[in-house]
């Protein structure tokens, strides 16, 4: 496979001082971190307390499944957020959509922290929980494209992968923050108080994201690529219509290439948290500590992998990560099933290497698949469709597969199947690019 990006590279932008580029990239990374923190506090609470608080009429397993189903609602909403954010972001700019997404996420997360339980208000509690999770999903679907494009469209030539990885690092940073806060609250309150009220604290901290939204609104300028595209646009059409008419296959292949990454990630941070505590009998704090260490471990790997992709191409680095995830799917669960926390950590950390290698260049890779006029819409849709197919249902699928098959190898097979889809999708993206290049040369 070629080492080059699959299609249209993002332009280096207007003449922007390097310091401004770095400040904007830092702002984009900060928005990604706080947005993912607020998204992840729900995933931890879904594994630990939501089953008993909001679905107490179910059995323990059914309660966890219902809790994870509420978790998955956020992923179902993310493509809708991608569509809304893409339409607005390709029409009115990256910055305002990013600000709106931050405000929506902050409001929804804070409201979850104030939400009464099933015992207090009955069926209204799980209904409100699902609706607020829906808002979270829409906000994340809107946010990712804005943050990714803010960083990559301000990046200097030849550094787009590195700048984009700063946004991608928002995922492990957000997870570190979410798990760190939960770990501290759990340690400080004890099991009984944590279940009663301590779990609310991480959600209530979400109110501070509104401050960041205001700072972005006041201090960040629109991206050079969008300003150029807006100046050159003859008439304002629908970016979504253009994407569905001319780039539908690219969106679907982008989604297919990424689903294995997001599925593996959410199995590691949510599915295994439930499995290790409920089935293997490991202490909640120990498993949370491993997940926290995994995210810290990923942080230095991501800019390294992204910088390598700037030199040798996104596809080579991305494909290496996919192959690694496929090969490690079976050893991962063999180590988890030992019930030894250290061996489980080894399995998760090795998986984290391949996740980082694949995820680091992904923002730049998806940005380079589309021209500036439809980039927000196209990149967001590809990413968010993968989040539904892979991440949203991964913890639910893991619980269901374990219940039906009675072995964790069924989960390994699930990840391998997604990995094979990813390899096929990458191959078709490269083949399509070559066909377009050949047609252009002949024309």
Automatic annotation (TrEMBL):
<keyword id="KW-0472">Membrane</keyword>
<feature type="transmembrane region" description="Helical">
    <location>
        <begin position="381"/>
        <end position="405"/>
    </location>
</feature>
<feature type="transmembrane region" description="Helical">
    <location>
        <begin position="162"/>
        <end position="185"/>
    </location>
</feature>
<keyword id="KW-0813">Transport</keyword>
<dbReference type="InterPro" id="IPR036259">
    <property type="entry name" value="MFS_trans_sf"/>
</dbReference>
<feature type="transmembrane region" description="Helical">
    <location>
        <begin position="341"/>
        <end position="360"/>
    </location>
</feature>
<dbReference type="InterPro" id="IPR005829">
    <property type="entry name" value="Sugar_transporter_CS"/>
</dbReference>
<dbReference type="Pfam" id="PF00083">
    <property type="entry name" value="Sugar_tr"/>
</dbReference>
<feature type="transmembrane region" description="Helical">
    <location>
        <begin position="317"/>
        <end position="335"/>
    </location>
</feature>
<feature type="transmembrane region" description="Helical">
    <location>
        <begin position="97"/>
        <end position="115"/>
    </location>
</feature>
<feature type="transmembrane region" description="Helical">
    <location>
        <begin position="121"/>
        <end position="150"/>
    </location>
</feature>
<feature type="transmembrane region" description="Helical">
    <location>
        <begin position="251"/>
        <end position="273"/>
    </location>
</feature>
<keyword id="KW-1133">Transmembrane helix</keyword>
<keyword id="KW-1003">Cell membrane</keyword>
<feature type="domain" description="Major facilitator superfamily (MFS) profile">
    <location>
        <begin position="24"/>
        <end position="434"/>
    </location>
</feature>
<dbReference type="InterPro" id="IPR011701">
    <property type="entry name" value="MFS"/>
</dbReference>
<dbReference type="InterPro" id="IPR020846">
    <property type="entry name" value="MFS_dom"/>
</dbReference>
<feature type="transmembrane region" description="Helical">
    <location>
        <begin position="36"/>
        <end position="55"/>
    </location>
</feature>
<dbReference type="InterPro" id="IPR005828">
    <property type="entry name" value="MFS_sugar_transport-like"/>
</dbReference>
<dbReference type="Pfam" id="PF07690">
    <property type="entry name" value="MFS_1"/>
</dbReference>
<protein>
    <submittedName>
        <fullName>MFS transporter</fullName>
    </submittedName>
</protein>
<feature type="transmembrane region" description="Helical">
    <location>
        <begin position="411"/>
        <end position="430"/>
    </location>
</feature>
<keyword id="KW-0812">Transmembrane</keyword>
<feature type="transmembrane region" description="Helical">
    <location>
        <begin position="285"/>
        <end position="305"/>
    </location>
</feature>
<feature type="transmembrane region" description="Helical">
    <location>
        <begin position="61"/>
        <end position="85"/>
    </location>
</feature>
<feature type="transmembrane region" description="Helical">
    <location>
        <begin position="197"/>
        <end position="217"/>
    </location>
</feature>
